[in-house]
Write a structure and sequence with these properties.
The protein has 4 helices and 17 strands. With 338 residues, it is an alpha+beta fold.
């Protein structure tokens, strides 16, 4: 009996000792609690010391009017060695396809043009190449053509027509359709040296009678490098094809000619090789340049035929002359040689 009491007493003491150990933290737990307290204090200090930071997420700073039909470009075109690089920003929709066309006044380039897409923030950079050894007059055009877009949503978005100073129309002979485009053009002398120019919105002063079949033209003449430059004001409809050919007395000439298309306000600029710079031309005191517009010319789009008739039958005015199968426009400019 006494033995049982001792066993029970020993058991009670053992349980009390075990419970006492559970109530006391081990050194490891004390260390963890100290670290947690220190971390809490540090977090509290960080909250008190933190400040607002100005930041910008790349790709979110798109133009506010992105997608507007009044399209604009800003930027510059640089020439470095044989490279022509157009870079800047536009409000065209992201993934809109741009082209950079380069063409000489005389002859053609093969495979030199460049293309690229507009980024989500409206920026673009496109590169084209000039053949080795080329020097001379170079026409450069940065454009967004609605008819050339591979994305149907973008093509549909701009189907109503582009507006603003960069807006032009063009004829797609393959589709037999007229389209609108946003375009910037410039003509430079390319000599392989570094140069650059800004992309500037054109200003057009359209005459009140633009597109009237009673056509008038006012040409002026300048000299630039090795060319005679014919600048024309008229009421001809935009994108009408116009040609100029030199008629030199006592000479049969084929290389002294130029052609271009009418601007949105009826103006145009043509470059013709200067006969005075040709050593083969001698004993000539003056010569004529004949400026012609023929609606039946295959370079014209269907909008020109609609305005003036398939064979120019709707044309009228002092500049009209009759052909076997219709009418055309002709004006002569006489240039005196020094």
């Amino acid at each position: 009996m006494k033995s049982k009491k001792l066993i029970i007493l020993f058991s009670v003491l053992f349980l009390m000792t075990a419970c006492g150990k559970n109530d006391v933290d081990s050194p490891e737990k004390k260390e963890n609690k100290t670290e947690q307290k220190s971390n809490n204090q540090n977090n509290s200090e960080e909250k008190e010391e933190s400040e607002e930071v100005s930041f910008e997420v790349e790709g979110t700073n798109a133009p506010k009017d992105q997608g507007d039909l009044q399209v604009w470009f800003e930027g510059k075109i640089e020439l470095e060695g044989n490279k022509v690089i157009a870079k800047g920003v536009t409000n065209l929709l992201p993934e809109s396809r741009l082209t950079l066309d380069i063409s000489p006044e005389e002859g053609t380039f093969i495979g030199g043009d460049g293309s690229g897409n507009v980024d989500s923030n409206g920026t673009f950079e496109i590169e084209a190449g000039v053949p080795d050894g080329f020097e001379g007059l170079l026409h450069v055009e940065l454009s967004f053509k609605t008819g050339d877009q591979s994305d149907d949503k973008i093509k549909e978005h701009y189907s109503e027509g582009i507006k603003g100073g960069f807006a032009r129309i063009y004829y797609d002979s393959y589709e037999d359709e007229m389209y609108s485009k946003a375009s910037f053009r410039n003509t430079i002398v390319f000599d392989g040296q570094s140069q650059s120019f800004s992309i500037i919105e054109p200003e057009w002063n359209k005459p009140d009678d633009l597109g009237n079949p009673t056509v008038w033209m006012k040409p002026t003449v300048e000299k630039f490098e090795d060319y005679v430059v014919i600048k024309i004001e008229s009421n001809l409809i935009e994108d009408t094809f116009i040609r100029g050919t030199a008629d030199i007395p006592n000479y049969i000439t084929t290389g002294f000619s130029g052609s271009t298309y009418i601007n949105p306000d009826g103006t145009a600029t043509m470059y013709i090789k200067d006969p005075e710079k040709d050593s083969r031309i001698k004993g000539v005191s003056k010569y004529d340049i004949k400026i012609e517009v023929d609606p039946a010319d295959g370079n014209n789009g269907k909008h020109v035929i609609e305005a003036y008739g398939e064979n120019g039958e709707r044309l009228s005015g002092d500049l009209v002359y009759k052909k076997d199968d219709g009418k055309a426009i002709s004006q002569k400019v006489t240039i005196s040689m020094d």
